[in-house]
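A note from the maintainers: we've had questions about how concatenated examples are separated. There is no special marker in the raw files; a new sequence line simply starts the next protein. For clarity in this README we add a label.
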Amino acid sequence: MMTTGQSRRPRTVIADIALSLDGRVTGPGGEYDASWAVPHALTRGARSHTAAVTSPATTALLGRKSYEGYAGYWPADDDNADPDDRTFARWLTDVDKIVFTGTRKQPDWDNTRLATTDPAPSSNSSGTRKAATSSS
């Protein structure tokens, strides 16, 4: 919340949005199956791009389904994983996470808070820090 005399500084929002040409992200496994994207996401260019784009962000804005998918996969720090994947996993574990949800009652990952209100005011309350977003 801003008080009298404070000015708003521009924020940087980095968006990571999965969208296919036909507007569907459903794969052969059903709703929210992103297996179709895996061959593209595992390229050297995609991995290094993800690590470079997200690393300056101090806050991750996530939809509930993205959060649940990430929380089930990324917190593990695998020494055998690709170095860019380890960088992204450490960033995602350490960064402040705001999860927009109407159904979750408790976060199960460190540095996470749940937002059940409109995303704009919730993100603005994070101050002037940089935010990375992922839609779901």
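[label: protein 2]
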Amino acid sequence: MVVGSLLTFRGEQDVITPAASARRFFDDATAPVKDFALIGEASHWASFRHPDQFLDLMLTKVRPAVPSTR
């Protein structure tokens, strides 16, 4: 499978979408921009439970991958 960009951020302890399953999907995908990150000590709602770590990933991984419209 080929996609534009694939940035996957998962909770390390997610039992609904386990990190291992997400990682297999990520590894099988082909994309020009690709990154996989686990948010430590987080479950399925990682972005809400650890907003500081999620914001850091958005700023350091997503922002550089988005083309500027300026």
